[in-house]
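Sorry to interrupt, but I need a hand with the structure work. Could you add the entry underneath, on a fresh line?
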Amino acid sequence: MAKPDRNWLTAAVLTLSLYVLVSLAALEEFDLFFFVMLGALIGCVAMFNRLFPGSRFTTMALANFLSVYICLYIFFVNANFVGAAPWAVRLAYILPIFA
């Protein structure tokens, strides 16, 4: 009997751990926005693993891209949109990812 392929699990754990570290470093406080970012990442990783099965590189490249994106996004929100409503900040983060 063949062993089940668990490459997706390794890629998902590495992706999530990298993203959690970057998210916690970029955010000033631990709140709902962290879980919004984590949910967006899980959705993207699941979609990419479904579209490109067995490709750890694609998942890690996606995690790196989203990590850079969250750093730039937090920078622009803090620099230019301090007075924005929290729901608008969360929605504006999710829309480009799922577009």
About this structure: The two ends are 41 Å apart (CA to CA). The mean pLDDT is 82.
